[in-house]
């Protein structure tokens, strides 16, 4: 069970044809929490809400997200933007709602993360532990996010990605690397989402039938948007751009002293197969049993 804290609501309208939400009324402060059974929130999910003042339970339908906030609907009140911070849009907003992307971008349990003392399974890391970056620095973990998912509710096209051992060349990854499709790897100077690398052979979606009924994925956060080593492969650390509140253990996060707003890693990001640079495709094709993505 995952819970997500809400600070308040903007009533608004949602155009189903265009996918556009528009704020129509002033912000309403209303502190409450949503709970979701499987931890992977997608359009149409039923969310159970309970307010801090004892109001509830009540049920809303999740429509999609806008900048990490949620568009929700119920028959009594209509559409609203439920925000994780108080009044983030005092001037209002009109925005296209992301109705397709669940919040999942993590490592599978058992993923070996490089530390100064050797490799450690991601789930065994704790805040304060040191991990190694791709440029050889030792940096402290500030948070290890956990998200529990149910395989039944996970769309096949959003399932985990398995990068076979050696599929990226130079013997990497050292062992099969399993992570979510939106988690980026630093390859040839470019942050490439794992889902963009899927070729159906050496890099493939994990069939839902192979997954346990319920499983947990993990993300590592450091003070900066760093690149650490997962099964030897450079992989990004957590960047709080999609809402920390969706982690099961988000309430455990303690900002490090003097924490400032992070600057995203300077490397360009690739999210779609058609954007993958030729040099990355060549690297995959040159690996033992490698296969280039379809042109």
UniProtKB/TrEMBL annotation:
InterPro entries: Hedgehog/Intein_dom, Hint_dom_sf. Residues 106-241 form the Hedgehog/Intein (Hint) domain. It comes from the Bacteria. This is Hint domain-containing protein.
């Amino acid at each position: 069970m995952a819970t997500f804290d809400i600070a308040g609501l903007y009533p608004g309208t949602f155009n189903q044809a265009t996918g556009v939400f528009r704020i129509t009324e002033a912000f309403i402060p209303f502190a409450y929490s949503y709970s979701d059974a499987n931890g992977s929130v997608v359009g149409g999910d039923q969310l159970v809400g309970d307010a801090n003042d004892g109001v509830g339970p009540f049920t809303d339908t999740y429509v999609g997200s806008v900048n990490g906030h949620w568009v929700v609907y119920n028959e009594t009140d209509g559409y609203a933007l439920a925000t994780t911070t108080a009044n983030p849009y005092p001037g209002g907003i009109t925005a296209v709602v992301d109705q397709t992307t669940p919040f999942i971008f993590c490592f599978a349990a058992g993923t070996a993360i490089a530390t100064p003392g050797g490799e450690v399974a991601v789930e065994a890391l704790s805040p304060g532990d040191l991990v190694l970056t791709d440029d050889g620095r030792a940096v402290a973990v500030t948070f290890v996010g956990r998200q529990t998912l149910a395989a039944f509710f996970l769309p096949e096209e959003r399932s985990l990605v398995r990068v076979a051992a050696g599929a990226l060349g130079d013997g990497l990854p050292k062992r099969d690397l399993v992570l979510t499709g939106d988690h980026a790897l630093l390859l040839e100077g470019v942050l490439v989402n794992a889902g963009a690398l899927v070729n159906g052979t050496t890099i493939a979606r994990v069939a839902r039938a192979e997954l346990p009924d319920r499983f947990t994925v993990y993300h590592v956060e450091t003070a900066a948007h760093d690149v650490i080593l997962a099964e030897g492969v450079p992989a990004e650390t957590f960047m709080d751009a999609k809402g920390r509140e969706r982690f099961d253990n988000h309430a455990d996060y303690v900002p490090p002293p003097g924490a400032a707003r992070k600057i995203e890693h300077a490397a360009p990001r690739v999210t779609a197969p058609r954007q993958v640079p030729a040099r990355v495709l060549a690297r995959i094709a040159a690996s033992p049993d490698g296969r280039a993505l379809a042109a």
